């Protein structure tokens, strides 16, 4: 791999796919809300939790409705870790990837947000989706996650609890940070690493994005405030009332996060990565500055960088087939 940045252009880059793509931004944009104000308003509980049984029931109904848009999973697996039980779904693919793909979603989201991506990714190989521990979803946190090391440990234990011994890790937004955080600390089970517009990896988050995110962190404010911010992160796309949106809204409204603020992963740690890395960067993302692609090209020793001009932070939903093709080509080169 030559480490050069490849700019995705042409008809597919100029015409984003319509559909549920903006929901990915809705799921991932609230990564920025871990501020001092929010922490001060949280309950004393040391783990993520629902505000009430009724709130959780509402989320579970919305989750089930959104999950109906996914292919039928081959298996549903609950993996016990030191920090709680992690829900994993396995989907049987038709491709010949050397190891399964493991998909990590963005903040305040869960497996159903991959609905647009799974059809094309399953042509690459078998796929696992993970509901992040400490986030709204079917995973259940029962011990505090205190730092970045704990974040790596629960994910490593999850992968270690699956039948295979190597995985192609794919992370979106905060899921991208979660994947890289594991790769720099406990890389033994990672064959390759793909990050899709990750936060806190190649650039800091702009202060304007942090300030505009505050309404999304306060569940008692009107839903329209959160919708406005999430539409902004998705390049101005309208927010529609569909099952995935209902699930995300229910999670944001009724689930309290008790996770540490992610630490920016520095250049020295990225330079030390010893597995092939694919970095997909959205040209118009509001989650990082305009230098993220150049930074990725500079610091990744075995990196392939794909820049999507005009794409928002919802790039994986705007261009699901193109990104699946990127991943397929990347995995072929990595063999």
UniProtKB/TrEMBL annotation:
Q: Give the superkingdom in one word.
A: Bacteria
Residues annotated as coiled-coil are: none
Q: Which keywords belong to this entry?
A: Hydrolase, Membrane, Transmembrane, Transmembrane helix
Gene Ontology MF, one: hydrolase activity
Q: Where are the transmembrane segments?
A: 21-41
Q: Where is the AB hydrolase-1 domain?
A: 101-325
Q: Which PANTHER family match?
A: MONOACYLGLYCEROL LIPASE, MONOACYLGLYCEROL LIPASE ABHD6
Q: What is this protein called?
A: Alpha/beta hydrolase
